[in-house]
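Notebook, bench 3.
Goal today: get a predicted structure for Hydrolase from Streptomyces cinnamoneus so we can plan the truncation constructs. The sequence was checked against the plasmid map this morning, with no discrepancies at the termini. Length recorded as 210 residues. Pasting the sequence as submitted so the record is complete.
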Amino acid sequence: MSRLHLFDLDGTLIHGSAAAVEISRQLGLETEIGELEKAFAAGELTPPRFAELAVELWAELTETEVAAAFEGAPWLAGIRDVWADIRARGEKCAVISLSPGFFVERLLEWGADAAHGSRWPSVPFRDPVDPAGILDGAAKVRVADELCARFGLSRTDCVAYGDSMSDVQLFAAVPVSVAINADHHVRHLASHAYTGLDLRGAYERVSGAG
C-alpha cells in the first residue's frame, strides 16, 4: 500500500530556524524578524499579518538573497536520501509549510513530489500580500487532502512530520506522525518522536529501516 509522507519545513527540515529567519539573516535583519517570530508564536500576529510585516521588512529582497538563504539554512542531514527511498518504494513525499512558496518550492529540486508554501508576492516585491494565499495550521490539512486526491490516496495513507503548533491539526488528522525536535504542542500527539540532526533517524521510525 502506498503512503504519502508530509513534511513541515520550519523547525523540522530546518533545524532550530525558519525560512523567514534565514532570509532575514541575509538582509541583516535577524533582530527585527526575531521580534515578529516571537509575536507570532505568542498568537499576537495572524499568519497574514506576519506576512504583511515581513514583506515590509524585506522591501529590498532579491532572488539572489533567497537562494543564499536556502543554501545556507541549517537543514537536517539526509533529506535527499529519505525522499529518494520514499520514491523508490513507490510512495510520495511532500512539503507543506506556512513559509513563502518561493522558498518552499525550491525543495522540488531535492526530490519532493510536491512543495506547498504560502502564496506570497513574487520577489522583488511589487504587489501586496493576499491574505487568502497565506496558509495556517488548518490549511495544512486542506492541502494534504488535495494531495491525497492528486495521488489517489486518503488521510489514512498519510504520515506527517512536524515540530510545533502549526502541525497540531495535521497530526490529529492522520494516523501516523513523527515529532521531530518537537515542542510540547505536538510531542504528546505524535505516534513517534525523534531528536537529532538527521532526517534518516526520524524516517526509520516509520520505514522499518535501520
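Strands lie at 4-7, 92-100, 114-118, 158-162, 176-180, 192-194. DSSP finds ten helices and six strands in the chain.
Flagging this for group meeting.
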